[in-house]
Amino acid sequence: MNIVILAAGMGKRMRSDLPKVLHHIAGKPLVAHVLDTARQLLPGKLCVIYGHGGEQVPLALAAGDVQFAKQEPQLGTGHAVQQALPFLDENLPTLILAGDVPLTKVNSLRALVAAAGTDKLGILTVDLSDPTGYGRIVREGANNDGKISHIVEHKDATAAQHAIREVNTGIMIMPTTKLKEWLSTLSSDNAQGEYYLTDVIAKAVSEGVEIVSAQPDAEWETMGVNSKLQLAELERLFQGNNAKLLLEQGVTLLDPARLDVRGNLQCGRDVSIDAGCIFEGTVTLEDGVTVGSCCVIKNAHIAKGSSIKPFCHIEDSVVGAGSQIGPYARLRPGTTLAEDVHIGNFVEVKNSQISAHSKANHLAYIGDATIGERVNVGAGTITCNYDGANKFRTIIEDDAFIGSDTQLVAPVTVGKGATIGAGTTLTKDAPAGQLTVSRAKQISINSWERPVKKVKAN
Ligand code: UD1
Ligand code: CA
């Protein structure tokens, strides 16, 4: 099939300079959700109609398999679909989706596509307890339960039609040659002065084309975003559904209502996640990993049995098995920790490799460093990796002991089994197996007296 995604509208009620369809659900633009669902149907042609907000939509979505058609001015949904016609394959039916309806499931679309075949017109409809604002599905028969005869927009509907609860979700499919023909005869003689796509239904009926409808499993699949309130509601729906999937997979969520996944979170067995965590990009938590509350973890791999304590921030990093991170640790991009590494509170690690069984438990900055096995990095240690212009590496070999409050002025190497005395500013390599210390000699002055506060005259 061809798929056309309508995304040219302004979204006035969002009160934003950003085009509506580029606002995010789960860290991804609304229309990108629609595109991803559309791709699962393997369309022959995929076309996005854009308009409001200049080139922002095509720039955000640029991909080899998508064609963009500009609609300007925006004269209605029928006029929007017309802009896609030059890009469509006339031998395939065309499925029309809305860029501001992000949560439709691919199975609901498949059911609609199957029902319509190649020669019928199919509409995805839903019964709403409050249908206000939607186009109503008008059916034949006194009880409105016969064949579909047309769609009437809320603003054009009579009081009796307002009582109809079956509405148009905006998602429909039909033969492309027919679509082309019907669109060319649309008029804008209606309450909104727009060319309504929905008017093709009555045209199909008059030509004897069969109309079928399909319904989604859940009402929220067809909910659109018109305001920040609806955006927030759909975000919660999305996150709630995702949390349910994780629970079904056996993940322990201390509070499923306080978890945000903005990307792809893969969990092994017996993973536990406390309240308030945010996962972004692609994150893997292997078997037995526990994540404490309020962690933000992005594009990371956490190996078996590791414990991430509360308030950690981890990005583009790998944590080896059985490691202990935090509380309050920050792992920045390029951090690779081997197994059983301990990174404690207020420790920042960046672009560094730390080998097995090494520890930096308190208040340290480790940047551009390569650290061996069983190394102990004392409290307050800092790798001075930047001279204001260039970055340099620090190398700490196996079994070294770095005393507290040491500054390692890179480039510098600490040899195997070396000990660095507390308070050292290391500017030259420290030889293996020896104690290296650089600090002023301690003296005591017994004649020294504390200054006394002067008493002011007046
Ligand atoms: C439309 C349907 C209505 C349906 C509802 C479902 C029509 C006439 N009405 O109404 O039956 O119940 O969706 O949500 O089709 N768009 C363009 N160009 C335009 C106008 C709109 O690209 O000129 C896009 C919008 O960006 C949006 C979609 O089409 O993604 C729907 O437009 P909108 O104005 O929200 O239509 P509704 O009035 O909600
Ligand atoms: Ca709408």
Describe this structure in words.
By secondary structure, the chain is of the alpha/beta class. The protein folds into 2 domains: 2-222, Spore Coat Polysaccharide Biosynthesis Protein SpsA, Chain A, CATH 3.90.550; 228-436, Hexapeptide repeat proteins (UDP N-Acetylglucosamine Acyltransferase, domain 1). It is built from 8 helices and 35 strands. It has a 21-stranded parallel sheet that branches. Strands 5-4-1-6-10-7-11 form a 7-stranded mixed sheet, sandwiched between helices. Strands 28-31-34 form a 3-stranded parallel sheet, with no helix packed on it. A hairpin with an 8-residue loop joins β8 (136-139) and β9 (148-152). The mean pLDDT is 96. Uridine-diphosphate-N-acetylglucosamine binds at residues 6-9, 49, 71, 74-77, 79-80, 98-100, 134-135, 151, 153, 167-170, 196-198, 224.
